[in-house]
Write a structure and sequence with these properties.
It is a single chain. Helix content is 29%, strand content 44%. With 146 residues, the protein is an alpha+beta fold. It folds into two domains: 43 residues; 100 residues, Immunoglobulin-like (Sandwich). The radius of gyration is 26 Å and the shape is elongated. The N and C termini lie far apart (79 Å).
């Protein structure tokens, strides 16, 4: 009878150790997934907004919400843009209609670009995209104008 109890106890102990091991592996996998996600986000192409770009200070007053007026659209890419002409496309999120498409000339080697003097003269929520002339989307961001 004592042999049977110790045998069962050993069996339960082994199961508990195995379950702990699997739980640890699961946590390690989650940590790995989060690390990969953060790494991908850091590498990801980004379009964002600021009041203006200063050659010394960089972006001045970066935000996602602004009052009507002239802003700077910033694009940060994980690799050089590879083209000399792009469009900044502004789409009204409520209607889904393109409000404006602005052409810009860039250097194909650039991976950090500021597009100055983009006018937002009406309140609303907008999706802004930087596109190659063939329509390939390089980066997209959203902005609210109040």
């Amino acid at each position: 009878m004592i042999n049977l109890i110790t045998s069962k106890a050993r069996y339960i102990l082994i199961l508990m150790i195995f379950a702990g091991y699997l739980s640890g592996c699961s946590k390690l996998n989650k940590v790995k997934e989060l690390t990969e996600k953060v790494t991908d986000e850091v590498k990801a192409d980004k379009l964002y907004f600021c009041e203006r770009y200063d050659a010394v200070k960089g972006e001045v007053n970066e935000a996602k919400k602004f009052s009507t007026g002239t802003l700077t659209v910033m694009v940060k890419l994980s690799k050089p843009i590879g083209v000399r002409e792009v469009n900044i496309n502004i789409t009204d999120l409520n209607t889904g209609k393109a409000v404006e498409t602005l052409p810009f000339t860039v250097q194909s080697s650039w991976d950090y670009i500021h597009f100055d003097d983009v006018i937002f003269d009406k309140a609303g929520k907008y999706k802004v995209s930087c596109l190659k002339k063939d329509g390939t989307v390089l980066a997209t961001g959203e902005i609210e104008i109040i």
